[in-house]
Amino acid sequence: MKTVKYLTAVLAGTFIYVLFSVSFGRNGFWAFNQLEEQKRVISAHTQNIANINDELNLERTAIANDMDVIAAYARKLDYVFPDEKLVKINGLGEVRSSMYESGTVLKHKPVAFVPEWVCKACGLVITGLLFILMFLYDISQGNISFKKKDDVETIQGIPVYDMPQI
Question: With contact defined as beta carbons under 8 Å apart, do 25 and 122 qualify?
Answer without folding.
Answer: no
